[in-house]
Amino acid sequence: MIPGAGDRLPGGPTWRLQDHETLPSTSDLCIELARAGEPAGLAVLARSQTRGRGTRGRGWMSGAGALALSVLLRPQEGDASRASVWPFVASLALHDAFALTPRHRQSLRLKWPNDVMLADTGEAGSSAATALPARKLAGILIERSPSSADDAGWLVLGFGANLASAPILTDRSTGCLAELGAAPDPRLIAERLLAALSGRIEEMQRGGFAAIRQAWLDRAFPAGTALAVRTPAGETLGAFSSIAEDGTLLLRVGGAISRISTGEVMLAGAGASS
Q: Which domain of life is it from (predicted)?
C-alpha cells in the first residue's frame, strides 16, 4: 500500500480507505475480506488493476490515472430488501463525485441502470454537428453474498472510471473526465465518492426509493432518448420513458410501454454509443 493507506476519512470512522499501488482486483480483495468477517465501511482503492472485472463477465481495463475503487457494505435487513435500489444509489454517488464544476454537471448523464456517460464536450455555443456522441465514462459492478452462505449479508460496490485517459474498445466508445478539464487525482475522486455515497445511502434510508428515483431521473438522458436493449431473446429498440417504482426500465416500444428488468442497454441512433 502507498503512504496514507488505511486512513480514516475526515468526519468520522464511517469509511476505512486502503490505498494500493496495484491489485489484481479491488472487488476481489473486498469480497475476500468480507468473507473473513471485515465490518462494513472498508474502501479499497488501487492505482492500477491487473484483473479488473466488469459486468456480464467482461474484463475492466484500468488505464493510467483511472479510478478503481470497491466498497464493502453490510446492509441492514430493510436495506437489503431494496436490492434494486443499489445501482441507482451507487451511480448517483458517482455522478456527485464527478460534478466538480458546472461544466461537469452539464456534461454527465446517467444510463440505466448504473452507467455514467459523458454526453458532450462541446464548448458553449458549439453546433450539434460538432458535438461528440455520448461515451461511457464509468461503470459499477455490484456483487452480494449468496443468501445461503455463512457470511451472508455483505454487498460490494465496485466503481471503475476513466479519469486521465480512455481505453480504446472495439464495441463501444469511451471517454474520460480529463476531456472536461485537468484529470483529477483518483484519491480525490475516491474521497468525494465515499462522502457522496454516505449521503445517498442516508437519503435512501430516510425516504426510500422515491427521492433516489427522482434524483436519478434528473441526471439521466431525457425521456425519448433512443435505446436498444439486448437480452438472450434478441434486441429491442425503443425510447426511454422513465424508471418504475421498483427500478425497472420503462421503454416505449411503438405505442406501448415495456418493463425491462434485465439486459444490456445501449444508446441507439447515429453516432450513439453504449
A: Bacteria
- The conformational region for residue 191 under phi > 0 = left, psi -120 to 50 = alpha, else beta, is alpha
Burial class (CB in 10 A: 0-12, 13-18, 19+), 104: middle
The pLDDT value recorded for residue 76 is 74
**Nine cell digits for residue 116:** 455514467
Which range, of 108-112, 126-130, 227-231, 234-238, averages the lowest pLDDT? 126-130
Query: What confidence tens digit (pLDDT) does each residue in 242-270 have?
Result: 999 999 999 999 999 999 999 999 998 64
Cell numbers 439486448: residue: 230
Continuous H helices in the chain: 26-35, 77-80, 86-98, 102-107, 186-207, 209-219
β-pair partners for 158 = 70, 141
Structural domains in the chain, CATH included, are 7-221 (3.30.930.10), 223-274 (2.30.30.100)
d(CA 14, CA 20): 19
Report d(CA 123, CA 147) in Å as an integer: 49
Write down the pLDDT at residue 57: 56
Whole-number Å distance between alpha carbons of 120 and 141: 24
Contact 116, 108 (CB under 8 A): yes
pTM of the predicted model, to two decimals?
Answer: 0.86
Contacts 24+ apart (CB under 8 A), 271-274: 271/133, 272/133, 272/134, 272/226, 273/117, 273/133, 273/134, 273/135, 273/136, 273/172, 273/173, 274/136, 274/171, 274/172, 274/173
